[in-house]
Write a structure and sequence with these properties.
One of its GO terms (molecular function) is DNA binding. Helices cover about 35% and strands about 25% of the residues. It is built from six helices and twelve strands. The strands form three sheets. It has a four-stranded antiparallel beta sheet. It has a four-stranded antiparallel beta sheet with strand order 2-7-4-5. α5 packs across α6. The chain is elongated, with a radius of gyration of 19 Å. The model has no long low-confidence stretch (mean pLDDT about 90).
Length: about 220
Amino acid sequence: MLDQVEIFHGLSEEELKAMEASSTSRAFPKNTVVIHENDPADSLFVIESGRVKVYCSDKNGKEFIMNTLGAGDYFGELALLDDSTRSASVRTVEKSEFRVVMKDDFNQVLDDHPNIARQMISNLASRVRKLTADVKSLALQDVYGRVANVLMDLSEERGDGTLFIPEKLTQQDIADRVGASREMVARILKDLTIGEYIRFEGRHIIINTRLPAKY
C-alpha cells in the first residue's frame, strides 16, 4: 500500500517495510472528525479506504473546504517534520480506514534509515509546488474558472468518454471550495447543464464534454 503513496515514492523496499512496521491501523465511521485544526500534531495519516474532506473554519464556524482526499492520499505529514499544530481539520465523508504513523515511531525508523527523511522532503517539495499553483489559480481566476477547475480536479474518467465526480457535491460544497456565493455557483451549474456540458445522475455530476474556457 505505502509504495503507491506519493509521499513515499522513491523509498527502497526495505525502507517501505520499516515504515509499514511502524504504522498502525485505525478506522472511523462516516462524518467523524479525525483531526482538529490547531490541535497538537503528532501523526501522519494514509487513507487505505474511504474519503475525507480537509477544511478550515473561521471564528464564526463557517467552513472552507480545502480538499477532498481518497484512498492512496495522505494528510498530517507536517507533523513528522515540526512541532507545530494542525493547520486544518479533517472529517470523514464515508467510513474510512487509515494507516497511521506516529511522530515518535517515525523518528525511531529514521535512526536506522536516514534516507527516508531526505526522500520524503523531496516529495513534499513537489506537493508544495502543486499547492502554490492551486493558490495562484484561486487568486487569479474568476468564479467560473475556479468552479470549472474544481469539477475537473474531482472527476474521474469513465469508459463512455464522460467524466464522473464520485463525491456527492452540493452547490454549497462547491461554493465553499471556490470562495463564492451558493447563488453564483447555482447559476453557473444551471448554464452548464443547459449547454449540455454537464448533467446530473442522482446527486453525482457527469461532465459530458470539455468545459468552455470562458463563462
